[in-house]
Amino acid sequence: MRWDCHDDMDNRKQIHHTERVTRQMADYLKQSTRYFKSYEEREEAFRKSAFSLIPRKHLGPGPFWKDFRRISLDGFSKISSTPIAVVTSNPRDCLAFGTPMQVLTAACLSAKNADQRQPFTVAEIAEQFGIPGILHQPVRTLSGGETVKLALAKSYASAADTTRLAIASPFCWLSRDNISYFKKLFQYYHGLNLPVEIFALEGEDSDRPIEGDERLRIHTTAPVDFSIRLKNVRLRLGTSFNTLYTHHTVVRVDNFSAELSSPCLIVGENGQGKSLVAKILAGAIAFSGEAGITSGKRTGRARLLFQDVVAQTLLRPFGAIAGSCGAGLKQAALDLYGEILAAFHEMTGKPGGCGDAAGDGLGQTPLSLLEIKGILVAVRLCVQPCALILDEPDWGMTRSDAVAFVAAIIRVAHAHQVPVLIISHKPWWLSIAESKIHVARTETAAHGIRESAFSIMMRRQAGEVS
Amino acid sequence: MNWKTRFFLLVVVSIPAFTGYPVNALDFSVIPGVTWGWLGYFLTANTLILLVLGPSHFSNTVSVSALVTLPVVFVGATVSYLLFLTGFGHPDGPAAYSAHYVSLCLTMLTVIPLALSLVAVIPFHEIEQRLLSNREGVSGFEKSQLMFLRVFNHIIYFVIPNILEVMREENRFRIGPDHADDRSRKAGIYKGPGPRSSRMRALIRAMTRFGIEGICAAVQYIPLWAVEISRLPDRKGK
After folding, report:
1. A109 and B170: CB-CB below 8 Å?
2. What sign results for the dihedral spanned by CA atoms A202, A204, A207, A212?
3. For residue A262, pLDDT beyond 50
4. Do residue B220 and residue A57 have CB atoms under 8 angstroms apart?
5. Terminal-to-terminal C-alpha distance of chain A
6. Helices B94-120 & B3-19 angle (0-180, nearest 10)
7. Alpha carbons within 13 A on the beta-carbon side of A252
8. ipTM of this predicted structure
9. Which of B163, B206, B203 is nearest to B187 (CA)?
């Protein structure tokens, strides 16, 4: 009995200790996180934290080259004495080497140079972060999820050679499966008494589904029915630039056919192929087979708002983006842009109309991320597509702005009988979706030494909430 | 055949392009602008590329070469003709300079495939894999190689494909009303409605945007990578 009592007490102490540590970590995480009201503010703060090493592309070519010139002239002297580990908002951009083995070897080399007691080997770190099987695979062939884990592992390995860690919007790109790796990294830096700076947008770390007043704003229009069909879809990832040595990835998408209702949510963890499916449906990528969406009397491809909308602008000014749908449709695009932003401002209660962008056809004023997203969506809606796909629409936006923006798009799109599909790994959108598709990836056998292969399976999820 | 042997063969075949010997020595004309020397060199170089590097690479090379050569030759000839019409060009007209453009076409269709093949035969990925294999540190030359390879890979495997995806998604809808398409899709050449002049203007605008976005995207993270590569410990000399 006495022995059993001791066991019980030890277990309870262990549980209390674990809970206390978990609460402490949660508090430290909150203290380390700075929340911002806009993408521009967050980018500016993150950039300054990273010694302004990243020129600001979202402001346009002029400011970009001014920043680049300043970085070139300033040099790196002040950075050498206070090195930092950085994880950018697109984790692939902060990886300076061609393979995960090189990334982790470089991190370990630098760390060992700073502290000979560096305890980790590349294999150990790869094992800890779930990437032991991809060490020699080119970084360019890694999935989004694998890239995220590699970026976190790199920061972990280089801790001995850094004075702090700066991460941009981790909750935007981390799915639930990978949150544990982020927490492992955070705890490690905390254990070493190294500051961690997390630059996040307001509400981006929320797991709460949309509900209450937010839900009501979404459902001011009737759902739009549509169907998706994919048959015998095959594609090769990788470039044909160097056919002799290029590592190709062969992708097979399992046949899928479903009757759905808009808004439709496409869900899946990091790196499962959600964006790839969207690009196939939008015709943005070459493939063989059949892929199409039927909505009303229209059958064909969808239009796609990419996750990285700044890259999608191709650095064009507002007027050029508005005119990209053709001269005859420019005014229609501008009208739709006005509708979207008016709906957005009505839902957020923020003052403002179309902003300076619509009136400044000369492109003198840098566009805000909201304006960029608004005009890109308007240009796509004005051609009456079979569907509009939004890839991670909350990217670069606070939660409240993202919800209002998507609600505005759904309202305007449904008014024109255009179904909307939302790609996201966030649980926010679950409660507003009229239908859901789950995307998952499975590795398959490859046919050559410079080839890897995987299949994408799409499955309609039951239990839609309306 | 390993890559060094292939590279050596291609270098040997490239020598006449730089020295002009012996191709320029065989200057008997087949047709105006085409000599036996250059015709033989054209056939020899392209046959060697096909045999050494394979039909898959050869077809890509021919496509790229044609894509570069034809606009240059035809635009050049057009400009010369326009200059002739204005009175500022060659007084004898097209008969005087047409041979030059035929020769230019043949030369480009010989030299461009050789240049592309010389680059393609180098296994950058193997070189890349060998870098950072020495755990004692990294030499200055290796740091430069690492930087070059990172930027090269970023441009070839991310910047260009991302831009092509954006342009494909947009251009697709300039063709006309959308409809289901069962056939295999390949990378599209820009097409659009309206008169040829407006399409040409749109093409030039698209290429300008491609260039601006490509350059900015290519260099945006160079400072970040440079800092990380520079932090690698230097290999101590023996």
Report:
1. no
2. positive
3. yes
4. yes
5. 55
6. 160
7. 12
8. 0.85
9. B163
